[in-house]
Amino acid sequence: MYSEWASLQSSVLSDAGSASVLHTFPEGVGRDVACSVVRHLSHGLSHGGGEDGQKLDSEQQVNWTMEVLCYGLTLPLSDHETIRDCVNVYNDWLTVLTTPKTSVPRPILEEPNKYAQRMFKHLHNLFLPRSEGNTYVDKQVIMCHRILRTSQTIAKESPIMTQQTWEGLLLFLLGVNDTLLAPPTAQGSIADQLCDRLVSVLFEIWLVACARCFPSPPLWKTLREMCITWRHHAAMVDQWNRFNVLLTSKVLKIMYGPDFPELKIAEEDISMVPADMQNECVVQTWFRCLHVLGNPVDLSNPNVISQTPRFIHMAMISDVVIDPSHHPCLKRLPAIFLRAMKGISGLVDAFLGMSSPREIEEIDSAPTTPQVFRGSASTTPPGSRKNVRSFMPSISGKDKAEFRKSAPAILPRQPSASSVTLFSSDQHTVPSPCRPKVNSVLHLFGAWLFDAGLAGCELEPTHKRQGSFSSMGSRRSSAAFPSSSQDVAAAVDSPEYPESYESGRAEACGTLCRIFCSKRSGEEILPAYLSRFYLVLAQGLQVGRYCSREVMAKIVVNCTDLLRSDLKGVDVLLPRIVDALEIILPDRELIKFRPYVNQIELRRSAIQLLLSILCLPLHFRDLQIQDILRTHETDEQPEHNTFLSLKLRMVNLLIGSLQCEQDSDNTQMILGGMLLCVQDAALLEEAELQAAEQAEREQQNEESENAEKAADQEQKGTVDAPDHETPASKLAQGLYSEYDSAYGLFVRCIHLVCQRLMSAWKTDLNVSLAALELLSGLAKVKIVIQDVLECKRAVKWICDYIGYQCSRPPPNHSRDLHSMIVAAFHCLTVWLVEHDDLMNDKECLQHVLETVELGISGSKSKVKASDQPKYKGDKELKPASMRVKDTAEATLYVVMSQVGSFPPTSGPASLCTLLNEEAIMKYARGSTSEGSLPFRYFVLDKNIIMGILEQPLGNEQDPMPTVTVLIRTPYGRHAWTMQHRQLSWQDRLGSRSALNDPGRPVPMSDVGLHHDVTHRNFPEEVDRVPPTKADLSIPTLQQITGEKLQQELDKLRALMDVQVKYETAINVLTEKRIASTTFPNSDTECKPPKIVQEFHPSRLFLSQLGFLSLDGLKSAPNSPLPALIALDSKATTFHLDLELLDSIPVRSFDTVFVFYVKCGQKMATDILNNVEAAENVQPQFLEFLRSLGWPVEVGRHPGWTGHVSTSWKLATDDDVFDDSTPVADGTGGSLFNGDKQVLYYGDISSEVAFVVPSGSRQGNCRDQLPDKQAVDRTSTQGDAMATGPGPSRNLTLELAGVDPSPGAVGPSPDTPTCHGRKRHLPSRANMHVGPDTKVLVIWVESYDDIEDFPLEDLLSECATGMDYASSTSSLGSRPGMEAFVIFIHPLKTGLFRVNMHGPAGRVSKAIPLVDGMVVSRRALGALVRQTAINICHRRRLDTDTYQPPHIRRKIKIQEVVTKYRSQMSEPEFYTALFHDM
Fold first, then answer.
1. For 363, 420, 807, 1158, which has the most beta carbons within 10 A of its beta carbon?
2. Half-sphere exposure of residue 36, counting CA atoms within 13 Å on the CB side?
3. C-alpha angle with apex 19: 13 to 22, nearest 5 degrees?
4. Which residues form the Rap-GAP domain (predicted)?
5. Bridge-partner residues for 1392, per DSSP?
6. Residue 683 has what DSSP assignment?
């Protein structure tokens, strides 16, 4: 910089201007003259008079007096009073440059600059060390301070100083500093006590001179040369850091404006830079001061520091020191080197705009006792350091205040209105968006940092550059990185690095990591910088006997973004990083790292690094990794140097780190990484096996096609036998031989997580939730289960976990504990549904049912297998909580109704039937009265509403008792059609013939002989019995007949004769008719009764189920309601309440909004328009959308569509759907904006709609929200979009207390709604089932655009219809609305970087995605979907007012029962059953 200018150092050192004429006389003569003259001048000053000074009115007199004063300043410290008087005189006379005192002689007043320059030269004598030792050093120090204060005052206040005077003042300060600071420092000497003050005054006055009279290049060169010889003083480096920070704060404002993060400066230092200093002057001064110390890396080499004339001279005259580099004062160099590196680190952070202060801590002179972080639970990042403290002499008074100063700090940036809180575990500082490019920072500081990062390292000749810092001897050699974990384990016990300069080297390495990790998306870094950076990291991450744990710790803590910043060639460091992680992560205590960094922060950074490399082995597979430290061809190469060879080591790192991790946040991050590994491996195996099978099929087709050709070629020659080893078999062998299969990792994860869940995580809410989310995710992974016993063990462990938590003492029961139990039941449900064959195992089924029983009742029927079971009626219900009981009941329902039958025939979009009363009546026979439905409604056990239709369906031909039952339970709506049958259903013809006449046999003509027999009333033996007197006691008719009676008898005989004749004639006619009638006779034939065609099937159905007993109609002892209740279906609002019940979903539902942000976009409108065309988005984005869910038509979809106005449609809604508008092709995702289609995913417990808002989104009902005034009028009113012109009514869950008026009607059927559908919407109070959690997935082309993402503007596009239903107390805003944002940035490697933002909370960190994780292309969609579901699930767990869907349906059913119960007596109830509807 100053090569063409001459230095003034020699002239400063050889200047004779500080010598006096009295030095030519004997010492006693000069002393006597000086004491007499000075005492007289000082006496006049002490009495307030200036007569003695005024008598010096000639130039000769003043010159003679100054010669005396000059000599007096050189007197021994034993004459300190004379020296003090000389100082007093010159202090008064120097006021001529500011405000002259009366004691100033007239010649000095006339030529102030001339005499001031002479006085500066004379005052140099005051600072000369004396030979008396340290007896009077304190007094000399005080006098020196006074002169330094006077110099400061003159520089700041003098308006008359010329350029020569400025140069004289600066040369005076340079000479003084060089005299005291250039020689080696002695303990307690004046140089030791004045060092900090001297350098501080020099820099302060130099800054003022730059503003008033900019120093010439020779002066700058002199300053640089002299400062280089003072570097062995810690105060010199401290003051250099101090003024660099001061000037840097000004330069940052000049370069980047006021919006750039402010560099905080101590209040007393702010005024050091003159306010009138021009910007160009500030920049020039800053750059020159930055390089005034030379290369700070020289501080790590005592040989360089000691190669000065003063050190060499001291070694030559000393009897103890032989080599200048062995001087005792150089033992401080490690601490000084560390101070210099921390100062440079602070400047780098200032340019990067780091939002966290990185202050310089107090460093002892002995670097072998580093600061130890107290306690492992502290989360203070290592960047937070103590303020610097300079060494102060033992003085008192106002001089002490001048020594005080503070270390620099950086003020955090004020977050914008649209910013959100980062809830990730990575709490590293965030660079400013306005930061300079990496190349610019490296141009400024790169040479120093690269040399410092390699300080003391012996490099290969090809790794050295011309002019670089030379190594300090053969302290280490280039070693190959170990290829196995055994080599790394052996490196843990290696001795520590013997030198003490590792702290400064570690600081430089950490600074380099922060610089390169601050790279912007698309930014290019010079290859020379990248290669040197990789060389520094490769050396710093070495293991073995040259392992430096301090350097390794600094690198790991500061390079978490290293492999996710798109640095070219960074993968060459992957083996070194894995080596370092194998030292850090499996170590539970990290004792050897404890002196350098916080253990939790170190492990967190290591886990972040691990999460960024998990997908690399399966992504690059067999790609070679070169070792940059091996340069000779003869070096031994490792056997496995591919990406795939590191797969097993990474998996072992995950397993080992989870076994010894104790921090909650770190554990959750590891669990997320484990699910990523299993999911990625499973998807890869599935895809490659499918490809192999396809290739095998193609090969078989080719062989079959070539069979005929092979037969023709048999005559010409033999045909080679084909290789029967198929591509599929080769691939399978490769998958299971090169690395662990997905199933192997699946089993290892289950075993470890379940064991840790039972042993160490039972009391940690967040870790337990994360572990259960991991187990749920593992259950959903599509993988071939080789041993069902592993799944059975997992279910057994989950049941044991629930049992342990439920059995904890009552004082331990809390909402958090119950949340863990609820989550465990949810996990159990997922396992049973995904692996339904587990229910075929008797033992597994018993465990599950016992656990469900425990959750419902609070105890098990059999604690031990040998115990007698305790029946339900004998047990006292004491569940852990109602939340646990409700969740256990839901699990029981899934076991009984869904396991083995999910998804149903209608698809996973609906767990219920899509039929309602209107849809069923379309297929029923018989006529119905207008406005009424022939359904009988009953309530069973207070929780089931059963609608019975007695009319058979139109396709039923058999006249049998048939009922169609529409059942509404807390778990959904179900439709059943049942018949009362006596015969088998297998043969419909046979069953029909059983109801017809089978016919009579054919008559036979031969009936045998006819015999005429006289029939007697009594046997013949009666006639032969002689009568007795008793027989004659009854007279005969003739004996008692008189004349009158005889006449009557004759009449009777006549009538009898007539009757006989008549009957004879009739018999003749009858015989003739019978003879003429064919057989059989229809009049006399016995026929079966006619089949009944009209029934009361509802009465038969209820009776045969046992509900019509007298006991069933009476109230139970423990319930005020009977088991069977009839409902009044003729009420005007009955069917409206049934529709409200049907509108309550049976599963939790969530919405995820997906946006695409192009590079540099900040406006919401631009972001929404990106998805209009496919050419505006990346192809990976469209593939990602398809992996989130399957597309569904909004108008026909029976599940959740992202908005309440279009969700949960029934079969009748399809009739009025208008889909005449064609669906456009070639969009960038706008097809799924919710107007026509959305992406949908549903499982057993939740359903998710993925909506891609676009600029062309129709202004339909999705954006129609009730205004504030309408909401204020009635906070519980139904949806404003479905309100008809008539009076409205409040639709709430509290329907029991509402007395509906006859004029209150529901929504008008003619009210237009979305897509022309004529259906009214449920009330918002009914639809609000939890916190209004917004989940946004943002695809960003540039990672830097995350800081400027317009979240608040885009939230208005995320309407779900429930945005204003969260609260009724503050309806003007959106209370309860929470936004979780998942940013996805595609890397150049083909992988994807994930960034998580969201409101901080107790249970916000859902997995599997973790902030900073790098995910593969095949697993991205599944992991994003699962994370979004888990986020919403956790928010519902953490919400006190949340009620699960089945509980809300249960409450609604009870309200319907209370409101519409028919108050009938038992006779009236039975009578109503016999009446038709």
1. 363
2. 6
3. 160
4. 1138-1387
5. 1386, 1415
6. H
The tens digit of pLDDT for each residue in 1437-1451 reads 888 888 899 999 999
SS3 616: helix
Give the pLDDT mean for 943-970.
83
Summarised one tens digit per residue, pLDDT across range 1336-1367 is 999 999 999 998 899 999 998 888 887 644 43
DSSP structural state of residue 1122:
B
Helix axes 788-806, 742-759, angle to 10 degrees: 20
Residue type, 1000: R
Contact 608, 679 (CB under 8 A): no
Element (H, E) at 334: helix 333-352
Nearest to 1098 by CA among 975, 933, 965: 965
Give the tens place of pLDDT for each residue, 314-359.
778 777 767 778 788 888 899 999 999 999 999 999 999 885 444 4
Find how far residue 294's CA is from the centre of its chain.
46
Structure tokens, 1431: 């986020």
DSSP letter at 360 equals: P
Tokens of 1131: 């009420």
Residue pair 310/183 in contact (Cβ under 8 Å)? The answer is yes
pTM for the model: 0.81
Would you state the structure tokens that stand for residue 625, as one six-digit string?
């990794």
- Per-residue pLDDT tens over the stretch 1181-1209: 999 999 999 999 998 888 999 888 888 88
CA distance 318 to 1327: 91
What domains does the chain contain, in order, with CATH numbers?
Answer: 9-217 (no CATH), 335-389+437-472+496-569 (no CATH), 681-698+738-898 (no CATH), 903-981+1093-1128+1461-1477 (no CATH), 1149-1217+1224-1262+1326-1442 (3.40.50.11210)
Q: Please indicate whether residue 1326 or residue 433 has the higher confidence score (pLDDT).
A: 433
E strands, 188-301, are 263-264
pLDDT over 90, % of the chain: 41
Place of tokens 């960038």: 1228
| Burial per residue of 812-843, b for 16 or more beta-carbon CB atoms within 10 angstroms, e otherwise | ebeebbbbbbbbbbbbbbbbbbbbeebeebee
Give the residue from 955, 1302, 941 showing the smallest Cα distance to 1115. Answer: 941
Distance in angstroms (rounded) separating the CA atoms of residues 1087 and 470: 123
Nearest Cα neighbor of 1281 from 1237, 1254, 1319, 1235 is 1319
Apex CA 407: angle with CA 401 and CA 410, to 5°?
135
Omega into 903 within 30° of 0, i.e. cis?
yes
Peptide bond into 1080 cis (omega under 30): yes
- From the list 754, 755, 824, 750, the residue with the least C-alpha distance to 787 is 750
Cα 720 from Cα 718, distance rounded (Å): 7
Q: In sequence order, what DSSP letters do the residues of 902-929 get, joined into one string?
A: -S-TT-TT-SS-S--HHHHHTTB-S---
User: 1281 with 1205: CB under 8 angstroms?
Assistant: yes
